[in-house]
């Protein structure tokens, strides 16, 4: 009875209003936070926004689950002004800001790209009179809803986490004039823009939100205002502007062919036969390029690396659910349009290459955030590789990866941030033995890391799906195989550093964490664990329907989603439970019968009773044992590989356009 | 943070038969610095030699090291014999060569085995040590003990070797040689082994002299110095040429030692052939007086004894400088820049004998 | 069942060898035990080279102050039941070196020795026999009603 | 690859392990353990004096010889020193033991001349 | 060679050159220039002074330098000329208490002995500390 | 059907250690004979294991026990999965899970040898994992399915079409069983620069568990090889044992190499051989 009530209640809400909340509320709260400069008020606003937005996204999700249909929505005009016009004006303003920024930063690239983009925009609006879409500018299908759910929940968790983080951050950096209002303005605006991007169907709207995320990320990256931050922010800006230019170019090309500027319609048209598909390849290549820049694929990886100068919540946001995911989302969206073309294969190779290259470079990094960044690049590469494979199975893998990667990566960044605030270091080597000083954070972090690479966690299962999907394209498969083994290397190394500790009795002391640190961490960790335990329902109830709904609708001829028998039939739950037992039983035995602790083996020269591991060496000196991980600078250092990797990346991009314009 | 790894290597370590510690400073797995820490085997024998009488000292110096014991005794006896003075009968001189070379033979076998073990070639270790047991049996039969044979005494030797035993020695040497023909190529020509030892721990001739390397280490760097060429015992009457290699790496050192096995076998054959009849020991008369330095060639290189006596029953000072002591500085110079996996290989390539080093 | 465990223990003595200042004679004989001619692996004896895995600590040599420290450290890291075998005149009493200034006259002063193997150097067979005897002794000890296995090493030493 | 031959040959031949000591006759002339035949001993102490390890202690007045097996290094100096042939070297090696054996040889007390 | 020539007791080692303490480094440097191989240092405690023999080898011929160093005198290390000397210099300093300074690797008197050993065991006159 | 499968899994769990232990014993005996020794009795591994369990429990820190138990669990699980004919890729990841657990156990101790051993074990993972995955992919290309049971439906043994994979499998075995020339992260004989490498700090019962896990691993690897000749159980077993024998022989005729060499060989030679075989397979199939 109750359930029915809730169901009908949910059915009765206006999804349009929900979309409004999801897109506009963050922006409005951001402005509010900026205006009201009170600490307490800020905390209140952010938390309330978080709850409301989360609630809204959940409701939308439930609505979608109950209604089982996509939502099309045209927002009512405000005060007689149509939203189309508002967005148009907004976009114009953004481009103006970019031009000004370019001039102010004396950066020819930024200026030129902004100008180019503005020119394209003007041409489109003034010169071409584009055939505006007749459909609603906003659309929410199952995929978009799932994405919004992730963005909203993870984004809001990160925003909450940012509250204590920024307080500590400013305290440590002795920033007296708080820049927090500005920070939260852009943070929240970012989330709103991201939601908008996911839900937009009108390509112009999409482009506007796209630019808005670029601006927000730029502001967030340069937040600390150091020279390095500014420089890196500039780099991020110009690379993303390049993506923007590609996007505008794509839209122009579409417009030139008289295509309606609506995602759904473009996709629908692409299914209209080989000729139609071929005609659309060039704009698709443009969109893919745009997606590559945003998701930092190989020739464009550097902006994401640079972005780690930003405060950690920003990194968490950029890497997990927003920004980079926007890029992949775009490609996922348009994938059916280039199904079964060489373009698709090239996209797969761009992804595969980034997957391997990111993993390889991550091995050589001691900076935790850099490792995370490369791992992001790598994982996104995997997603894009899946998209490039362009089969329903691969799509399933891609969507799963998006979900699980967001959760785990957001969590890892936040944990790294907590460690950074406690130990003032991001260096993996200095995190040695963290398990002794911060057992709780470390445990969570270790779970987070393991959730990136081991069964039965979701990322791995997704990877499995990806591997199984990639047998279609053996050359890619090899890249994926190499990439996934390298992934194991750097994660394991890092975990090893965290756990490496001097002899100690097992104890369960827990460090004190600010609740607003702890709760987000716990939420995401348990999210990763629970979703992994429930991987089968997640797959059958969420991912497969989403893929079916949008992909199959367009490409019904494509092979049916295979039964996924192998992966689905596998008894993941019993398996996970067995492993859990394997973890818990020894702990339980240890509690019951405490084993005795002995020093480590140091060839017989250990000195007992010291807090550090110490041995006697030449001249009877007590020497501390130092162990550092392997980073193989000469093998996997950035310097050794940057050149050729960039070259390969650029070559692949050229190939992308080559195939788009020359072949089907 | 500087990526530095500082770890102890030894004293108790399975690849080191004897306790010595190397403090290794590494990056990734490349050694940056290696500081030796010794003193685990220091007993104070030089001092003890001042307390015991000079005849008993023979048994003391023999126990400086169980691998090269006979040659310690030989060098010490040579020193005292010079101081007394006392003429050693020719047969004794030849017997000393025989036992000395047998000692070198077993020591080189021992080293070849341990060296193979240093890069994880267990079966080759077994091969060499199995072969070594043949030599050990010879000791047991001719001298009455496997390790510390106690046959050298001031003025000559304590035991004679009977003709049957000489025959048996020749016979066994033939077997040993045949076995060596099988196992030495397995060491020197094997792909995996060459990968592990060629070009590792290179010591140029220049450096070798400068750092005071001795024995096979010196000869592997291309310097033809073998203390046996000074002609103690009966070496001035035997034909041999020092084994020299020029590469100066672990492979060259292995090769020198391997060839010295053959050289030793050859020398024993010569000695047995030319073995004169007669007395085996002269009775020492008087008390040693004066200072003298003697050197003999050990399996590991040049051993130096300096004895200062003042005409009493006890010595004033006995100084022992063993070959490993001289080879440690080259080792310290060779290690930086090598891989961690090569540390045991390079360390063993000087054939460290710590009990000799520390006395 | 219990008997089977005891039998297994006896049949698998893993040794760690430490040279506490020997002349090498004894060390080489310990190593020679492993070689084909003596092959102590047929009794299950292996040289594990690591105190944490070892059952028997084979000590050769006179002991001096520096290596006595190492010896204690190694012994401490061996899990019970464990045994110490002293090999060679040096390890028993200091042998010919008993009057040297840096000699502690044998292992007994440092660790509780279970089996003494006399000789200079003892023959490999004697060393192998010593190790087997040590396991025998350990077995007897652990059959006693209050097995000393659970006792902390410090207590155990007191009890001796 | 040279090793392959050796290994295969080993595999198909008899192991060279000696099932000692049961199968092996003692080698003549081996210095095993020191043994005393005190019947002729005059307790002159020469053996103790020459012993480098001080393993033999001769107490002339009490007419005892105590021999410390654990100190003996088997050099056979005592054998050479004893003019009476009371010290000999046995070929069998000493067995390991759990405890330190006390080896004490007691001769008959010195008889006063008048008692003779 | 096994028979000593002459037959008379030798008062000192052959080919031994006695030099002043202050001239030591220069003499060693000369040996180095002549590319002699450094063998070792022998120290003898003569009561008032230490006699330090520096042994060198030239193509299997020996050369020796003899220095008399008063007990408290500072003896400069030669380990910068011959790196190989660092080990024996540490040893001599530790066992005899000769005040050698400036070794390439300094073990601070703990090359062979630990803190609880009696210091300078080889010296005839015990020095404190 | 279900009951049957459960029984099968139980049987595998029960008998694998026995078979694995006996094979290890045979390995030691064979090795000894190749060195002209008599060698330990066949039962020796069992004696060792039982002894290890009867030893005092000493640890350096608590995580070690967890890691060992996860290691054992995943080794046993991967064998069960193989026996039940599950997805081979999943199976490989389970295997990797075990290795990672052990590696983390080695890393969890701040001890030089255990740490360096773990670092090298990571590199070993890097070396053999691609080979195994490629093998599974080859099987997929042959059967059109990733499940082990699909092999059973083939009419021809895999070895006919995938002979080179036997070579790569021998490489993998040498690495996984820590045999020369690949005994890099920790060898069964302690004479190694790393003492016992990654196993250095595990002692007593933990070591015993590791031994048992090794037995499972051994049986798993041999079972995997036997898959290549599924049509005839005897041939499969002979093939597996033949590979094992080859690994033992190679162990005895090579020196230990370094990890650089291992990576080079496995990546260039191993992956090369795999690709060559796949290429041939495709080429022939294409024509
Ligand atoms: N050869 C030799 Fe020695 C001597 N003297 C040396 O270092 O072995 Ni123990
Ligand atoms: S007992 Fe003899 S052989 Fe053994 S270490 Fe002592 S002196 Fe050397
Ligand atoms: S045993 Fe011989 S040397 Fe010793 S006291 Fe008796 S008679 Fe004298
Ligand atoms: S054999 Fe040597 S050590 Fe033993 S008692 Fe006789 S003289 Fe002493």
Short description:
The complex is a heterohexamer of chains A (664), B (359), C (160), D (116), E (129) and F (287). Chain E is α/β, with parallel strands linked by helices and 129 residues long.
How would you explain this protein's 3D organization?
The complex is a heterohexamer of chains A (664), B (359), C (160), D (116), E (129) and F (287). Chain A has helices at 2-12, 15-35, 39-67, 83-104, 108-128, 142-172, 180-199, 203-221, 227-256, 263-270, 274-294, 302-306, 312-319, 324-334, 342-363, 368-389, 392-423, 434-437, 439-453, 458-469, 474-499, 515-533, 535-554, 565-569, 572-592, 633-636, 638-662, and strands spanning 71-73, 138-140, 596-597, 606-607, 614-617, 621-624. With 664 residues, chain A is an all-alpha fold. In chain A, strand 5 (614-617) and strand 6 form a beta hairpin. The longest helix of chain A is centred in the middle third of the chain and has 32 residues, at 392-423. The model of chain A has no long low-confidence stretch (mean pLDDT 82). Chain B has 359 residues and is of the alpha+beta class. Chain B has a domain at 44-198 and 233-240 and 252-319: Cytochrome-c3 Hydrogenase, chain B (Orthogonal Bundle), CATH 1.10.645.10. In chain B, strands 1-2-3 form a three-stranded antiparallel β-sheet, with no helix packed on it. In chain B, strands 6-7-8 form a three-stranded antiparallel β-sheet. In chain B, helix 3 packs antiparallel against helix 4 (90-118), helix 4 packs antiparallel against helix 5 (122-143) and helix 6 (163-188) runs antiparallel to helix 10. The longest helix of chain B has 29 residues, at 90-118. By secondary structure, chain D is α+β, with helices and mostly antiparallel strands. Chain D has a domain at 29-92: Alpha-Beta Plaits (2-Layer Sandwich), CATH 3.30.70. Helices cover 17% and strands 17% of the residues of chain D. Chain D has helices at 2-11, 46-50, 77-81; strands at residues 33-36, 56-59, 64-67, 87-90, 103-106. In chain D, the strands form two sheets. Chain D has a three-stranded antiparallel β-sheet. Chain D has a two-stranded antiparallel ribbon with strand order 1-4. Chain D is elongated and about 70 Å long. The model of chain D has no long low-confidence stretch (mean pLDDT 76). Chain F is mainly alpha-helical and 287 residues long. Chain F has one domain (2-285). Helix content of chain F is 73%, strand content 1%. Chain F has helices at 2-34, 44-53, 63-83, 88-107, 112-143, 148-152, 158-161, 164-176, 204-226, 233-253, 259-286, and one strand spanning 58-59. The longest helix of chain F is centred in the first third of the chain and has 33 residues, at 2-34. Chains in contact: A-B, A-C, A-E, A-F, B-C, B-D, B-E, B-F, C-D, C-E, C-F, D-F. The interface between A and C is small, with 10 and 12 residues. Bound molecules: NI-FE oxidized active center and iron/sulfur cluster (SF4) (3 copies). One iron/sulfur cluster is lined by residues 34, 51, 53, 55-56, 72-78 of chain D.
